Amino acid sequence: MLRMTGLSQDQLRKTESVLVPIVTLSNEHLPQITQHLKDLSEHDRHLRFGYTATDEHINRYVQSLNFERDEIYGIFNTELEIIAMAHLAIIKKEGRESSSEFGVSVSAHARARGYGARLFDRAVIHARNEKVYQMYIHALSENAPMIKIARKGGARIERDGAETEAYLSLPKRDLDSRITEFVADQYAKTNYSIKEDAKRFWNFLAKVQEIRQGVRETRHQAAE
Ligand SMILES: CC(C)(COP(=O)(O)OP(=O)(O)OC[C@H]1O[C@@H](n2cnc3c(N)ncnc32)[C@H](O)[C@@H]1OP(=O)(O)O)[C@@H](O)C(=O)NCCC(=O)NCCS
User: Fold this and answer.
1) How far apart are the C-alpha atoms of 91 and 98, rounded to whole Å?
2) Cα–Cα distance, 43 to 50 (Å, whole number)
3) Are 74 and 84 in contact (CB under 8 A)?
4) What are the residue ranges in the chain where pLDDT is below 50?
5) What is the distance in A from the centroid of ligand 1 to the CA of 133?
């Protein structure tokens, strides 16, 4: 299958260092979302949720995800495990302008590659296209990378001791924001399906090798 797509795993990785495929997640990704969050250390869970979330808290958080209203994004490795994810919660109130809250986590081994910033950019584009022009991020004041991402995005930062709030007013949507979202989405879908094909192919190959090994062992025993 990899031959059919013309891409080796190495090529796939190289492409991704230039373009980061960000998939819009749905119910079918719940197991990977849960796994990603449970793999975070205690400290990272504290940074992400504002408290040291237990596995039970994570289960409840994942069950409460609303894929219709909100946008949940994921970056996958070639094993189709989530190595970074973001949650853009949309808040709509009667008679008020819509707003949103952004939360993100990147697996420890995948940090400082720009994934956090790319997920933020992706969420901003979507919020704008949905005419949601206010975005809010809650971070602990010690969280330098998160505050950097928000500041670079033009956020007003308000520090109150250990807690920091970041408020963004987003530019109005335009043709560019709509095309950007469309292209980002198509690229991510194609990339995901290539990874699915690749994973199927390698699983198939592993099965064939397992069978061949079994046959070899049986022949060997029969010859003894
Ligand atoms: C915050 C977090 C998402 C950042 O993800 P990331 O993919 O490592 O971030 P990026 O690679 O996009 O880096 C963003 C910026 O922070 C900088 N940065 C990265 N690690 C840093 C560190 N340890 N200290 C200071 N700055 C750092 C990067 O250089 C980059 O700045 P630049 O654009 O000027 O180069 C990640 O650290 C994480 O998952 N932490 C645990 C959960 C969490 O804190 N969530 C945020 C609360 S909602």
Assistant:
1) 6
2) 10
3) yes
4) 1-4
5) 23
Ligand 1 atom nearest to 118, measured from its CA:
12
What is the 68 CA–ligand 1 centroid distance (Å)?
28
Structure-block tokens of residue 176: 């560019």
pLDDT in tens, 35-62: 999 999 999 999 999 999 999 999 999 9
pTM of the model: 0.87
Could you report the per-residue pLDDT of 84-110, keeping only the tens digit for each? Answer: 999 999 999 888 899 999 999 999 999
Q: Which domains does the chain have, with CATH numbers?
A: 2-223 (3.40.630.30)
How far is the C-alpha of 215 from the C-alpha of 114, rounded, in Å? 47
Ligand 1 centre and the CA of 113: distance in Å? 9
Which residues 6+ apart lie within 8 Å of 172 measured at CB?
128, 133
Helices (H), the chain: 2-5, 9-18, 30-38, 42-49, 55-63, 115-129, 144-152, 175-223
**Residue showing tokens 């901003």:** 124
